[in-house]
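Exercise 7 asks you to align residues with tokens for two separate proteins.
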Amino acid sequence: MLNYFIRRVLYALPILIGVNLLTFMLFFVVNTPDNMARIHLGAKYVTPEAIEKWKVEHGYDRPLLYNAGATGMSKLTDTLFVDKSLALFAFDFGAADDGRDIAREIRHRMWPSLAIALPNFLLGLVAYLSFALVMVFFRASYLDLAGVVLCVALMSVSGLFYIIGGQYLVGKLWHLVPVSGFAPGAEMLKFLLLPVLVGVIGGLGDSSRFYRTLFLEEIHKDYVRTARAKGLSERVVLFRHVLGNAMIPILTGAVVVIPRLFLGSLIVESFFGIPGLGSYTIEAIQAQDFAIVRSMVFLGSVLYIVGLLLTDLSYTLVDPRVRLE
């Protein structure tokens, strides 16, 4: 197991380094610090002196890769690449353009994102698997057909419709929960109920239809016929054997959503006024705060790779072939 994990980590490191280099190229070569200064200063105040002053204030006045004016190792270390790119590997995100510490903001905002994403993920997974298993249990019947039609109908509707419709129906007409906002402690529940409900319903169509396809592929295999020949009931065959053997693709789709658990949903958090990392990223994009955007891109890459590693490790729990390898 340890050797398997070490190999997966070694495979993941080049991916993270490549993402970091690509991010550096996009933010400092394609979009130069001079362009960042022009965006923040505005057309009326763009002068060479103002651009240089803005770069000095925000730490963008150093060379990209090699500082010829420095001495010793500072020629390589006193550069934008080391300060703005390599520092991310130590989770040193620096300060935003407005002076706030990015790491502190991330630590503060990750909890609202987790508060909405974790129940959305867990309740959604249970709902999607249960609905798919019910459709497969009653396969080739009118109930199965109705379930497929419902899934296709739900898939055909934009996610914004569920958000706006839920806010109008549940919040405006029925006055059951607040339309938007957030509060810590026990008051958090009333603010999270509607976003979680909208998230689960919005993903019911495509996820349940995907899981139904997985189960239908498994149900025609030899081990299912063997289980039936032994006299096992259809319920036991479906919920124990078929579900267990379909766990690999289920885990593949489930574990890789870990970045979304921490980073939040950009659209949901913005529409419901939740001060999480998703809304933090949207605000940074609107404010053209490239330091925050760069940090969030790197953090998302790290979490995605962690999700892939956990996916590979989870395979060893459900597939004996991986353990033997």
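Second protein for Exercise 7:
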Amino acid sequence: MNIKGSRVLVIGGAGFIGSFVVAELLKEDVGEVIVYDNFARGKKEYLMASLKDPRCKIFPIGGDIRDIDILDTAMQGIDYVISLSAMWLLHCKDYPRTAFEVNIAGTFNILEACVKHKIKKLIWSSSASVYGDAVELPMTENHPFNNKNFYGATKIAGEAMATAFNDRYGLNVIGLRYMNVYGPHQDQTAAYTGVVPIMLNKIDANESPNINGDGTQAYDFIYVEDVARCNVDALKSNVNFGFYNVGTEVQTSIKQLCDLILKLKKSNLKVNYIPYGADDARALVQNRIGSAVKAEKELGFKYKYSLEEGLLKLIQWRESTK
């Protein structure tokens, strides 16, 4: 698909993944990239480099995907939409009603506005959480939906609505099922942050990192710049509908992850192994590694950064922003 000279709206474009998507889009010959964000988790500082490009703008009054009239205004004259706005997994666990309003009703608002404004293609962020725990590895896009948490439920609902909008209105939609994304701009300090920042914070404080369970639980870790590039690859592809894993197909246990981080940090700290709590959402998924075949074949996407390379880039970013 030719995106030359086009106007692209990036919803959640000031966030962790969204800010990298904006930067990746600006490498293309697009006409304009407009960031639509409520700045609940996104930060303008993540866009400082991109905003030096005159093609990049922040929608002037900000915006939430629950604000239907503001969203409608932001989509006027837009050719393509990339949506990364969502409440995160553990937020959804604690605030399921708000999760419904943001992730389900908000996604409906986006889909409806895309139809109204004749958007040529929507790239929408789903999640590997739709799969739940693996019954086969690697998990292909045909893997059953075994999700048990609120976050995954909202993403399953979003995928179902995207399918319905495609069938009823012919809206072109590609849903991307992200594996475990890590990298700069991820919240490094909040209670709801991810496993990689938590380990790095412990080590930087000269405290032993904690591992829940025995550390054999394994995941597919993918660097944020690769995820951003996949969004742009999906936009430029000739595919008009479908759902795709975004991962590396490389299996890494939490123990292996921790050992690698300790090596990169040149730390001799010992690891604490802590039993899972009865209400620990992380205990529900022990293995999740996604097949990368379909995304490479149909979208032309293949990851670039190994886990070690990505962690080094993250560590360097943390050092530079202390």
